Amino acid sequence: MRRVNVWAITFDAIFPYNADMRQRDSAICLMAIDFSETSQVVHFLTRLGGIVKLLAKGSKRAKSKTGGAIDLLSEGDLLYSSAGTGTLGTLMEFAETAAHNDLRKNAAALNAALYMMELAGMMLAEADPHPEVFDLLHSGLARLARPAAAVEQILAYFQWRLLKHVGLLGDLVACVACGNGDILLFDAVAGGQPEQSQSDEGSQAVTGSTKRRMSPLVFSSCNGGFLCPACSGQATDKYPVEPGTLEGLEALVAAQAGKRVSLGASQANAVNRLLLYHISQQLGKTPRMARHAITKIADCRLRIAD
């Protein structure tokens, strides 16, 4: 009678190995944590697999398959074995293609990059693919690494597109309570041509359409958009819209519609504070890097945990 190794069958059933479980993908390092003297736990945003959390055994050794410790901001080609959501997978190879060393020399650009990565990690679920967000972050890091990068504008565009992609941007064309179209913000949506003027060190900045703006205007994250003066009293949360915010948002929409416009730094900062407020309300907490990446954060009336 042929003898059967029951232990081998049982072991393979519990711990199956399949070469097909290995996955190769483009990746950006969002977080790197020391696991031991020679190993790390690394969180990557991958293009096709979403966020993956991996144990990089021996990665801190100079002769490892990663060429040394993996750093934040590193981009490269990743080969890994996934163990499922909530469990660490195994990093098998990581070939760095971009270290963004120039970006690290600019404090403002570096803080914006770290904030962008933190947002991606907070707003995306593990193993939930979002190729558009990967491309958005990849492009944002590349732009921040350029000399004299327009940090405020790059950050505003990133926050805007990220919120739009995950479905949390809100209604920006009418009062979300009564539908009052008199606060319609963006003539660019209907194909109108925004007026432009020179501001912010000579850059072309959208100053708004000819449509009348209702004032005072507030943004309510809980209600999902802007509220007209008649409806703002019922909101449980209110963010007074700063001067320049609507023009900044209009510039972003116009740019997305293919129009040639530029976003002034002061307008971008106003947009960044509004979107930070909205993000913090939706997440229930404020990203830690926000205080370093966004100016005048105190105006958002947010509490950032230590």
Question: How would you describe this structure to a colleague?
Answer:
- The protein has 306 residues and is α+β, with helices and mostly antiparallel strands.
- Among the domains are: 86 residues, OB fold (Dihydrolipoamide Acetyltransferase, E2P) (Beta Barrel), CATH 2.40.50; 120 residues, no CATH class.
- It is built from eight helices and ten strands.
- Helix 3 runs parallel beside helix 5.
Put the structure in a nutshell:
The chain is of the alpha+beta class and 306 residues long. Among the domains are: 17-102, OB fold (Dihydrolipoamide Acetyltransferase, E2P) (Beta Barrel), CATH 2.40.50; 181-300, no CATH class.
What secondary-structure arrangement, pairings included, does this model have?
Elements: H1 6-14, E1 22-34, E2 40-46, E3 50-56, E4 75-81, E5 89-98, H2 101-104, H3 107-123, H4 131-144, H5 151-166, E6 195-199, E7 203-208, E8 218-220, E9 225-227, E10 239-240, H6 245-256, H7 265-283, H8 290-293
Parallel strand pairs: 3-5
Antiparallel strand pairs: 1-2, 1-4, 2-3, 4-5, 6-7, 8-9, 8-10
Helix pairs in contact: 3-4, 3-5, 4-5, 5-7, 6-7
Calculate the terminal CA-CA distance, rounded to whole Å: 68 Å
Strand-residue proportion: 15-25%
Query: Care to count the β-strands?
Result: 10
- What is the strand arrangement across the widest sheet? 1-2-3-5-4
Shape: elongated
- Roughly what percent helix? 25-40%
User: What is the residue-mean pLDDT, rounded to a whole number?
Assistant: 83
Q: What order do the helices and strands follow?
A: HEEEEEHHHHEEEEEHHH
Radius of gyration: 23 Å
Unreliable spans: 4-18, 187-211
* Total helical elements: 8
**Major beta sheet summary:** 5 strands, mixed, barrel
* Secondary structure category: alpha+beta
